[in-house]
């Protein structure tokens, strides 16, 4: 049985990815490692720190020792650490937002990125620009922080979080060609957005699809 280890920096990413694995890879065994201090420490520092990167390495090293066939990093805020860890961990590592970033510039040159924390927004924007450059595309990225949404989610007020983020998405839609949702936890809003003039990309579905493709390629 295929074993996939997912490293989370908080509990809110567990369920959305669990749903996608059940739909796309129902026969796989998925093991979740959750440490909510990782994101808390990144937010407190305002950036990815060496200490967080070392803890992330420890979790991914443990995943390798567990016999994982592949590791999924579920958090964009620590995604840039994964770029380094790919050279240190033998087990293949997929970033949940990488496929989404690759798709964004193919849909338009004006890309809007919505996040609820700056520590996720900034690495997501850098990833999109890097992926666009790899394809020889020029993009204009509009950044949007849905102020107050993340604190509402941490406080257990999902309805307020959803309202703040939804309003941010709708307002941004009139100014860009495509919108990227920078956090896994925002993906559940997409079905309720209704008809918008631009596509809205989220990472759980494409991230799990990337895991499936990586495993197929490694077979």
TrEMBL record:
Signal peptide: none annotated. It holds the Pfam family Asp_Glu_race. Gene3D superfamilies: 3.40.50.12500. GO terms for molecular function: amino-acid racemase activity. Belongs to the HyuE racemase family. This is Asp/Glu/Hydantoin racemase. It comes from Caballeronia concitans. The lineage of its organism: Bacteria, Pseudomonadati, Pseudomonadota, Betaproteobacteria, Burkholderiales.
